[in-house]
User: Fold these one by one.
Assistant:
Number 1:
Amino acid sequence: MIPITKPALDEEEVLAASETILSGWVTQGPRVAQFERAFADYAGARYACAVSNCTAALQLALHAIGVGPGDEVITVSHSFIATANAIVHCGATPIFIDIEPATYNMNPTLLEAAITGRTKAILPVHQIGLPADLKVILEIARRYSLPVIEDAACAIGSQVRIDGKWEMIGQPQGAVACFSFHPRKVITTGEGGMITTNDPELDRQFRLLRQHAMSVSDTKRHSSKHVVFESYLQPAFNCRMTDIQAAIGSVQLGKLPAKLACRRTLAERYDNAFAEISGLETPQIPEWARPNYQSYALRVTDDFSVSRDQLMQQLLDRGISTRRGIMNAHQEPAYRNLHCGALPESELARDSVVLLPLYETLTCEQQDQVIAAVVESAGAPVCLAAATKNVVSH
Ligand SMILES: *Cc1c(COP(=O)(O)O)cnc(C)c1O
């Protein structure tokens, strides 16, 4: 069986976790601080605040920016449901706008018309690691003095070119960027998240909100030579990452450049293999974007020999696991009662895209099996000439 993804963890992560366990400090402590520093340096951000997952990261970001009941946050329905949930749990209303069919990301030409007097923030998603059109989104946001919170759950290591300069996602380009370390993402800590910003006041708030708004942190109290009493400044949350997770995260982050190189090579092999097949559309990457290929999205059009669902079944019959395209929150029971306009491109993308297996330990032989199965479903003769450029073994 070839799975859709497989987290790459080895003895190095085991050692980091076991050292932490034996150190006697297992929850948010020195290893969280180290991971935050390394992550901020990698992303080029002034501050990085580790939290329990990306859903919590989004919620803290919205809270810190002051999003609350009666406010509207403009985002996409075409995302994992956590994006919409984070907005609703702040008491605000998500305003869904449609995506660009080529990139599956927020269509910035629809953004301005969605802004009202109640709009409090704009929340674009860098879907499956492909950066959203930040240059245009940020220009509009600036004109209306609206903060941009980036759902960068999948986008660690992705880059965007703004005014001729390549920038890392998470720098951040907007006010805040939120990342996930779920095993489905490019680096993992089991569960985990990170919030980056360049604003010291926002970072201070994230640190308070994630730990019950406690005025003195555990680590400060622990190392204090005097008796200190903390106070609790506002009703807040517990969104701490453990030191065990952070130790794993630091190891994973060190491996990120190799992971990215591997994912990009595998994606290119898929691109080459499917380029000439009628009815298949490989990812269209704008010249200003460098994705990390958290997922490989293949669009199956009416010109293909079988439907998207039939292709998924035929692959499953051959022992190859796939997933449908990204979900739409507005099509789920949870958001049935939310009033929103027509989102035809989002709906089409959910129903015509298939995500193929892509992970660093996927061998060329396994990838060739996936390619051969897709080619077979296309009714084309199996010819892998275009794909046989070998990936350096990893
Ligand atoms: C995975 C994901 C999330 C949620 O991340 P968790 O760490 O699981 O909370 C949010 N948004 C997007 C776009 C995601 O892909």
Number 2:
Amino acid sequence: MRDFEQRYGRSANSVRLLAVSKQQSIEKIHEAAQAGVRDFGENYLQEAESKIAALASLGLCWHFIGPIQSNKTRMIAELFDWVHSIERDKIARRLSEQRPAGMPPLNVCVQVNLSGEKSKSGCTLQDVDALCDEIALLSGLKLRGLMAIPAPLDQLDEQRAAFAPLADRFQRLKRLHPGMDTLSIGMSNDFEAAIAEGSTQIRLGTAIFGARRA
Ligand SMILES: *Cc1c(COP(=O)(O)O)cnc(C)c1O
């Protein structure tokens, strides 16, 4: 990833790594933490709960990156440091209300659906500005950026073209919300394109840990 920063004219260390540890063992997370990784992403709450408890002494930073059901917001608000997958205002309000008073505000990204397919997670590009405005008013949340998972594509130029509208919107929203510093794009198969388009946080699972267990 540092090579790609250089190749695409990004400043050194401007891209952070989020290690996606869903369906990976506690031992593998521990190894990655020993190697210096601090940020880990999980999609499934029950699985995450036991890992976070088991690794609590390491002081890791935990990111929730999966779809959010409204009856699970309390647990997410209590367990995580970040949430990347906010797609509606109701969920944002619940997370804000349920964030425990003694904890710092929950760092959040709005997930955007770039493919326009209804079956995919995320709000539309049309709705993202209003949702960001709303989140900025919630005291339990800290608006940090945008996240997306584009449909899988093979070619670098196609992948870049898919990310470009989001990168553009991110730059525009940052002027309205100066606390926005996170463009959470890029997975194992498209992180080069994401870095080229301005990603500040790539979310790598299989590229770091190998295949997930079935
Ligand atoms: C699983 C997952 C990833 C990591 O995917 P890989 O292809 O294994 O890198 C990244 N982001 C989200 C939201 C995921 O669910």
